[in-house]
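Let us begin with a simple case.
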Amino acid sequence: MKPSTITHSKHIIFNLHHNRQMSESFITAAFLSVSGGLQDIYTYNSRGHVFANAQTGNIVLLSQNLFNANWNKALHYFVPILFFSLGVAVATLIRQSFKNIQYIHWRQIVIMIEIILLFIVGFIPHNLNAAANALVSFSCAMQVQSFRKVNGYAFASTMCIGNIRSGMDALCSYRQTHNSQTLLKAFHYFAIIFLFSIGAGLGSILLLSIGMHTIWISCILLFASFSIMFIQCEEF
């Protein structure tokens, strides 16, 4: 066999492993999406009507309060935006620093940091909502930056607008091409949106019974994703 052929074969095998890694599997994305929905309803309903994930909403409310000279309220919405930005940066640095380590995936490091931060949030009293929102937004940003594909399709586990657009785009493409792979792609997006909504609904019910400790359910969901990622990909 020619060296170029061997190199090409190795490249194909590497890509197959990459595409099948558990950090990009649907089951991992499912737990992350339920957790994402729960985090968003938690901060909005329990921590002063701030969005943990949807920073567009926070920017709109920040701008409104700035133009009305409500400085304290503006700060209330600026904090999660700032910490969301920092979370993206930290997740990127973790990937750059640990992407080649063995025994544990760099995304598992991200999840463990998330779990620790969200566990701490469950102890933060309501008079320190700004601190709680900062930590949840930081956590959400790390997650959305680190987990960006499900079975090879780009997606977001902590927000829905991109998933809705991609899902409808795939559905319209299927109507034209009747390609079953395109229909499967649409299913992935709509399933993720459904799971996100399940997380939000579950969080709204749990808030009535366990209050600010509801965020610990998100820790359990994240730990499930962390554990799943130890499953080895099928060898080729």
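The second case is a distinct protein. As before, the sequence precedes its structure tokens.
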Amino acid sequence: MSKPRRPRRPIDGVLLLDKPQGITSNQALMRVRHFYQADKAGHTGSLDPLATGLLPVCLGEASKFTQYLLNADKVYVTRIRLGITTNTGDAEGEITSESVVPVLEDAAIEAVLAQFRGDIFQVPSMFSALKKDGRPLYELARKGIEIDRPARPVSVYRLTLLKVEGNEWTLEAHVSKGTYIRSLAEDIGKVLGCGAHVVMLRRLSLGPFELPEMVTLEQLEQTLAEGGPAAIDRLLLPPWAGLASWPRVELSENAAYYLRQGQPVRCPDAPENGEVLVFEQDGAFLGIGAMDDEGRVAPRRLIKSMAP
């Protein structure tokens, strides 16, 4: 006889998960959701099964704001292997070519990396999650189908060599949204004339979450076993944590009531324009509002009532 399923909980917040290697981001998300028994859950930007590191998991009302973090900058540390190319651009793919790796002095390595800093164009991998006619490219690639992908502008704000060991380079990269590290590795290999692919990838930071303390699935499971739901709830950041740098406004109880009804309300001492985080004066979070030229805030993305 199967065990009765635990009821879902209306839990809201953001967990900074340290995703392990070997599972997809969605698999990691579902495990977190199971531990919390959350009604809703979402994550902000997939990591490949090969990749580890920061995966913000948004539970409950926090899942309404995942889209705002998809455009955030990211910092990765990666190890690339020169002299070998694979069909996926990483170590999980099949080897497609092997070449002799040139001997390079530090100055020559720096000259290569300099070509990939700043605003560059990058062709997305066929094994990326980009969609063509509603289907992810990786689904087509696994069937042996390759389509033309136009090069897209991306920004590499920092690309630093951390270590050279044999034919492997360890790099740290601070990049804009839409930058694929496997494509960066492949392009470096093309410049060197020997090919390259990613053998390790770890995300360190995403947007406002700069080198944060992360929680592993094992830690989450142990904390739940030892302290129950209340213990893992204390690991959550508030739903607006990913937008903490945004300007804030506070509304009276009366103004908050009308905002919830979908009406713009006057907001003294508010920023002139743009999106803002909206709170009641008692600290309860209401959601995202948009300021207009007349000093009013209109509802943009509200949440269900939450305690302060």
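The chain has three domains: 13-71+209-233, 74-206, 246-302. The chain has a mean pLDDT of 90.
Keep these points in mind for the review questions at the end of the chapter.
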